Amino acid sequence: MSILDRDLNECQTFGEISEWRRAKYEIDKKSGDDYTGILTNIYKEPTHFIYELLQNADDAKATNVKFVLSSDKIEFFHDGSKEFSLSDIISITGVGNSSKDAEDTTSIGKFGVGFKAVFAVTDKPLIYSTTYNFQIENLSVPSAIQERELEGFTTVFQLNFKHDGRDTLFRRNESLLRSISPETILFLKNICKVDITVNDEMLDTISVKRTESEQSFSRVKYILDDKSIELLKFKADGCSIVYQLENGVLVPISGSKISVFFPTIVDSNLPFLVDAPFQ
Q1: Is the separation of the CB atoms in 109 and 92 below 8 Å?
Q2: Signed CA dihedral, 41, 43, 47, 48: sign only
């Protein structure tokens, strides 16, 4: 009896999931249904995975995250309280399937390009957690690896850069990491602190303070360019509108962009910030 005679979701152990994925990959490869090239081309943007990692960490209820970039790899740490489960492993090694609620439009991951975005920079992502430690080969095949020190976090993603274009991958990701600001995590639910290290240089910590109220709004505070920023955030039906406060008075926000959980490059031409699950 072949492992493929059962449904993937019926697998009860990590070993069974690994065996199922490997058998499926070998059959697809022999029949010409190898999607490696296609998917690698779709997920070729070498920096988008950073947002995907932040999305997954926020969905895992992480409050603190850390990026460590060096010349040959990038590591991402988070303290999410949601532990890696077998269903998460099935999801992260699949294409188009997710353990997130498909009907929940407030779940960020529903609109991401998926974890496969990491394959723009690595051939074999390494994932370490409090429950499972594994690598992913050929986009979909997990195999167990030795555990590592989590440094006080609960999950670590280690992405060793592809050899070809390694310098370019470093420069592109350095540029994006240096541009991350409090606005980047403004519309996330849980992440409030981001630490970034680039070649042993520790950048300024990025942090926001969210204060929920029993009313229809919450307050968000952060420091930007040595200036204290206070915002009022109103949220309903998965959409948010944010106004800036100065001395208790609403003031217009200049150069505001449309956000879809993260800021886009699209100008809103509005005096306030708008975040919604635009498609």
Answers
A1: no
A2: positive
Looking at residue 183, what DSSP letter applies? G
Q: Is 18 helix (H, G, I), strand (E, B) or coil?
A: helix
Q: What is the spatial distance between Cα 191 and Cα 208, in angstroms, rounded to a whole number? A: 8
For residue 213 the two structure tokens come to 């109220």
- 3-class SS of residue 232: strand
Nearest to 197 by CA among 31, 67, 76: 67
Q: Annotate 23-55 with DSSP letters as a single string.
A: HHHHHHHHHT---HHHHHHHT--SSHHHHHHHH
- E strand segments, 85-238: 126-129, 133-137, 141-144, 155-160, 193-198, 201-202, 206-207, 209-212, 217-224, 227-236
Q: Please enumerate in sequence order all residues whose Cβ is within 8 A of that of 22, keeping only pairs 6 or more positions apart, or say none.
A: 141
- The per-residue pLDDT string of the chain (279 residues; one tens digit each, 9 = 90 and over) reads 789 999 999 999 999 999 999 999 999 888 876 665 555 565 567 898 999 999 999 999 999 999 999 999 999 999 999 988 999 999 999 875 445 544 444 444 433 347 888 999 999 999 999 999 999 999 899 999 999 999 999 999 999 999 999 999 999 999 999 999 999 999 998 999 999 999 999 999 999 998 876 667 888 999 887 889 999 888 888 888 999 999 889 999 988 888 888 888 889 899 999 998 876
Q: Are residues 77 and 153 in contact, defined by beta-carbon separation less than 8 angstroms?
A: yes
Asked whether 166 and 72 are in contact (CB, 8 A), the reply is yes
What does DSSP assign to residue 161? B
Q: Can you give the pTM of this predicted structure?
A: 0.86
Q: What angle do CA 264, 117, 175 make, to 5 degrees?
A: 55
- Whether the CB-CB separation of 66 and 194 falls below 8 Å is answered with yes
Provide the residue type at 54 as one letter. Answer: L
